[in-house]
Write a structure and sequence with these properties.
Elements lengths: L1 H15 L9 H8 L7 E5 L12 E4 L10 H11 L3 E5 L2 H4 L9 H12 L3 E6 L21 H17 L6 E4 L12 H18 L4 E7 L5 H13 L8 E4 L10 H14 L4 E7 L18 H17 L4 E3 L17 E3 L5 E4 L1 H12 L4 E4 L3 E4 L4 E9 L2 E8 L12 E8 L6 E5 L4 E4 L9 E4 L2 E9 L4 E5 L5 E3 L16
Parallel strand pairs: 2-3, 2-9, 3-4, 4-5, 5-6, 6-7, 7-8, 8-9
Antiparallel strand pairs: 1-18, 1-22, 10-11, 12-14, 13-14, 13-16, 14-15, 15-21, 16-20, 17-18, 17-21, 19-20
């Protein structure tokens, strides 16, 4: 009898034990619930999947797997879902060569092939040392080696790796942040390393792209100049096809002047070299180490910061890589830069608002678009608002605008302003919020005055504005799906002069 009772209780147990609720982002709920635009929702942006056959100006971080800070098997599907066409990975010499002269690339094969299967093109940072040959370190701020025997071993490793991945890796980047740590005293060391590495890459693969730099947010122009001088002296300037940089500024817009100075400097050494924002992102909480630490970040300010960084890079026509897809479990901390929140078991918890925002931005700012410089946005009081025009086929079809004079806040409320959009006459525009992906109706009179088309300008009354980008865009210029409108609601088709 007792056995029967126990059996019945076990069978009934699932009905009494409530499953633990699946974790989710309360902040994502807030963005979707607290909508004070005062505008009717017309629809939703359609997101895109990456494709090996399509160009992309966006990359997403897949770093630190050489040190097991994340588990690729658990996160690989996010890369195919997000939409960015490229992903940055790190090679990890110490993990590939654990016995002198024997290379194991199986762990890297899994990542490279896994990204390709998702439609994402990998590019690889060649960085950090190997304790078999030196004690300079195998992680961030590892000392660049100078011993000829170590450099020769590095050259053999680079040659073997590039031959192995020929046709699968889009670009190789030489080292990570060589102007930090002990290396910031010795810019010539990086120049020597780049020259040796670039020549080894080119010998192993004559077609792959080569990048140098990976310079930190400090933009030490004197250091960079000395490094570039040494690269030129070693006859390797022609191999410097791209220069990467990491603009970690609390106010993203404040990096622009330094980026333009870097571009001018690089072109003095190789006029055909492109600039590439190779790593930049934002924590989602107050961090005590790494970039942007000791600022009170949250999931609210993180997503705003990332969108502003993306729009700044787009305005400069610079390809851009977001750091990073998931929180990384360093040996002493769980970093919170991820678009996906992770737990201490290296398992995904939930997608942050920044994941959805990046996916929407990648869809809007695709390879068919380009920055349009002839636009400006002013409030009726004459205050300049940060903005960038978005063109297709040479014609401006959209303007992104935001308040960018301070660090992104946690505030959800949007102001209503009277604004003059200079340089474009909109015909049938909608308003898009890249965070939620919502498409709003701009055709109705919002307060009074509504939308007025002027000579080479458009005036709006009651336009939403906050410290995150919003985009005014022609309805036929992007891919979106209309939703069911309330019965009796009819958007105006034309109301010039109202």
């Amino acid at each position: 009898m007792m056995r029967k009772i126990l059996l019945i209780l076990l069978l009934l147990l699932p009905f009494f034990v409530k499953a633990a609720p699946k974790p989710y982002s309360l902040v994502w709920n807030d963005f979707n619930i607290n909508d004070n635009t005062g505008l009717m929702v017309l629809g939703q942006i359609n997101t895109v999947k990456p494709s090996l056959d399509k160009a992309s100006r966006w990359s997403i971080g897949c770093e630190c797997l050489d040190r097991d800070y994340a588990d690729f098997d658990r996160i690989k599907d996010f890369y195919g879902e997000l939409g960015a066409g490229y992903a940055r990975i790190q090679s990890g010499w110490a993990r590939c060569e654990k016995e002198k002269g024997k290379y194991d690339f199986a762990w890297l094969d899994k990542i490279v092939d896994g990204l390709i299967a998702q439609g994402v093109k990998p590019w690889m940072c060649l960085c950090y040392g190997n304790p078999l040959y030196s004690d300079g370190g195998i992680s961030l701020n590892a000392t660049i080696f100078t011993d000829p025997k170590v450099m020769a071993a590095w050259e053999r490793y680079v040659s073997a790796l590039v031959r192995h991945f020929k046709g699968r890796v889009h670009m190789y980047e030489v080292w990570n942040e060589p102007d930090s740590g002990e290396n910031k005293k010795y810019p010539e060391r990086y120049g020597n390393l780049f020259a040796v590495t670039a020549k080894a890459i080119r010998k192993a693969d004559k077609d792959v792209m080569i990048a140098g730099g990976s310079f930190t947010a400090r933009f030490r122009m004197d250091w960079i100049t000395k490094a570039l001088d040494r690269i030129k002296e070693r006859g390797a300037a022609q191999h410097l096809q791209a220069v990467t940089f990491h603009p970690y500024y609390p106010i993203p817009e404040e990096a622009t002047d330094a980026i333009l100075r870097l571009k001018k400097l690089v072109h003095e050494y190789n006029p055909s070299a492109i600039l590439l924002q190779g790593e930049s992102g934002c924590p989602s909480q107050l961090e005590y180490n790494h970039a942007l630490c000791y600022h009170k970040w949250t999931e609210y300010s993180q997503v705003k910061w990332i969108l502003r960084r993306m729009l700044c890079d787009f305005s400069l026509d610079v390809p851009s890589s977001i750091f990073t897809m998931v929180d990384l479990q360093y040996d002493f901390m769980l970093q919170s830069f991820g678009l996906v929140r992770m737990n201490l078991l290296k398992e995904p918890v939930y997608k942050r608002p920044s994941f959805y925002a990046v996916s929407h931005a990648v869809s809007l700012l695709n390879s068919e678009t380009e920055p349009f410089s002839g636009v400006g946005v002013k409030e009726s009081k004459g205050t300049e608002i940060k903005s960038v025009g978005i063109a297709k086929g040479g014609k401006c079809v959209a303007v992104a605008y935001w308040r960018g004079d301070d660090k992104p806040s946690d505030i959800l409320d949007k102001d209503k302003v009277n604004a003059l959009i200079q340089g474009v006459v909109f015909e049938n525009p909608a308003l898009v919020d890249p965070i939620t992906g919502r498409v709003y109706d701009l055709s109705y009179v919002m307060l009074r005055g509504g939308q007025q088309r002027l000579e080479n300008a458009t005036k709006f009354t009651g336009l939403p504005l906050w410290d995150s980008p919003l985009i005014i865009i022609e309805k036929n210029a992007f891919d979106w799906t209309a939703c069911q409108l309330p019965e009796g609601y009819v958007p105006f088709v034309d109301h010039v002069g109202i």
